[in-house]
Structure to design on (319 residues):
């Protein structure tokens, strides 16, 4: 079932009419010409609406309930996926999916945040917000990939790391910090894709890569717009205003020049409109970047990763 955002309501009305005409069409009553006219009108309307999206509207698209998650990309991009569970310390964390698969026949490691679509799944996956054991599980799997020389693909889609008391007691900040340090020194190619929300350290804990990609309608920021608004104006409802200030869209981040390497195009209207097409396009980008990284030695991979993150900062000395 399609779910429409507020700015998509004109499109929803047209698609409802198209659906009704299809239902009423019979052998004796043919509405095909009317349907074609409405489909062209809907296509034109989509182009118009999606070419003028605000940063807040793009954030809403990044959070869309029907947007493909890690398991959807695994289904369409990889084969022979084998999931690994648990951090060998506390428990398994369903908010992070980790395991091994094949990309065009080549073995690799796949890690990504997983949200739920219905209430039961959302609670089970903790809304895509990992606990420390999730990051420790991810690191365990990445170290296995490093041991066997397998490239690592990570998919980022989280509002942030879970801020609960239990998570803090079990060392949430330490788990994230350890991942940052250890990922920096892995000797295999690491390709990161921000597929939806890239929220703060919860995202960065699996995003220290040689290449960082962003889907066209994904967002990447140090804090959510609502969280930013709550701090600045004590009013989380001012999220749209904060989103403009944060400049968190893929196009904004790409304009910085050093944070990401590519913006992956999505189907018209967003990746949730066509999971298969979105995944097919992403696969092309993953294969392209993997081919470039495979030509580098382990030492070059570590140095390149180090330099790309060093290049993100700017130092201004007083005159």
């Amino acid at each position: 079932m399609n779910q429409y955002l507020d700015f998509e309501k004109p499109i929803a009305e047209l698609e409802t009419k198209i659906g009704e005409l299809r239902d009423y069409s019979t052998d004796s009553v043919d509405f095909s010409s009317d349907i074609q006219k409405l489909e062209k009108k809907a296509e034109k309307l989509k182009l118009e609406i999606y070419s003028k999206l605000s940063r807040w509207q793009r954030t809403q698209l990044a959070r869309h309930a029907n947007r493909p998650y890690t398991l959807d990309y695994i289904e369409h991009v990889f084969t022979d996926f084998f999931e690994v569970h648990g951090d060998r310390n506390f428990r398994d964390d369903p908010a992070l999916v980790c395991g091994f698969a094949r990309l065009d026949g080549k073995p690799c490691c796949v890690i990504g945040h997983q949200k739920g679509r219905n209430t039961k799944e959302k609670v089970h996956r903790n809304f895509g917000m990992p606990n420390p054991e999730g990051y420790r599980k991810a690191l365990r799997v990445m170290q296995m990939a490093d041991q066997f020389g397998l490239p690592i693909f990570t998919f980022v889609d989280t509002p942030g790391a879970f801020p609960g008391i239990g998570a803090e007691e079990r060392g949430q900040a330490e788990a994230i910090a350890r991942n940052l340090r250890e990922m920096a020194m892995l000797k295999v190619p690491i390709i990161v894709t921000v597929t939806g929300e890239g929220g703060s350290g919860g995202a960065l804990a699996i995003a220290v890569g040689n290449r960082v990609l962003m889907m066209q309608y994904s967002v990447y920021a140090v804090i959510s717009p609502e969280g930013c608004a709550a701090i600045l104006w004590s009013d989380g409802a001012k999220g749209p205003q904060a989103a403009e200030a944060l400049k968190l869209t893929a196009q904004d981040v790409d304009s910085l020049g050093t944070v990401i390497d590519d913006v992956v195009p999505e189907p018209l209207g967003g990746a949730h409109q066509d999971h298969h097409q979105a995944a097919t396009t992403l696969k092309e980008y993953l294969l392209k970047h993997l081919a470039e990284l495979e030509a580098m030695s382990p030492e070059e991979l570590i140095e390149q990763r180090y330099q790309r993150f060093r290049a993100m900062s700017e130092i201004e000395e007083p005159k």
Observations:
- Residues 6-52 form one domain.
- The first strand starts at residue 79 and ends at 84.
- Residues 275-294 form the longest helix (20 residues).
